[in-house]
Amino acid sequence: MADNLKQELHKLSNRLEAAKRKLQAAHERADQPIIDKFNEEIAGLEKRIHSIRGTQTRQLGKQGQDLKQMKFRRALTKAEQADMGKLKKSVRGLVVVHPMTKLGKEMGLTEVTGFAMKPF
Questions:
Q1: Contacting residues for 57 by C-beta, under 8 A, at least 6 apart
Q2: What is the dihedral of CA 41, 55, 97, 112, to 10 degrees?
Q3: Is 97:113 a contact under the CB 8 Å cutoff?
Q4: What is the pLDDT of residues 12-58, one digit of tens each?
Q5: Which stretches are annotated as coiled coil (predicted)?
């Protein structure tokens, strides 16, 4: 779902940039009907982009809340981070969140943190 939103946001952003370029060209030609058309299109695209960004923010917040409800969480050591495959095999259901990702920033993490339902 997040990938679909990301792809749609990218497509809409590209369409918005193209419409803005065409609007600028219409302004240079002083073509009022075309200017009006692109102003409407730009307003619609900006509204849809804003809506998608709001949806993404809500999804990140929900995902963060789901992780915070897991019983066990702790920062991962450098050795554990180096051999992540072994760690994930030993702890089923482990979710690792890096502080530089959108989710990590949303949660306010300062170091790589693991979340799981059982101790690790």
A1: none
A2: 70
A3: yes
A4: 999 999 999 999 999 999 999 999 999 999 999 999 999 999 999 99
A5: 2-55
Q: 3-state secondary structure string, the chain?
A: CHHHHHHHHHHHHHHHHHHHHHHHHHHHHCCHHHHHHHHHHHHHHHHHHHHHHHHHHHHHHHHHHHHHCCCEEEECCHHHHHCHHHHHHHCCCCEEECCCCHHHHHHCCCCCEEEECCCC
Q: How far apart are CA 85 and CA 48, in angstroms?
A: 39
| CATH number for the domain formed by residue range(s) 70-120 | 3.30.1370.150
| Torsion (CA) 76, 81, 87, 91 in degrees, nearest 10 | 30
36 φ/ψ angles, rounded to the nearest 5 degrees: -60, -45
Single-letter residue type at 109: L
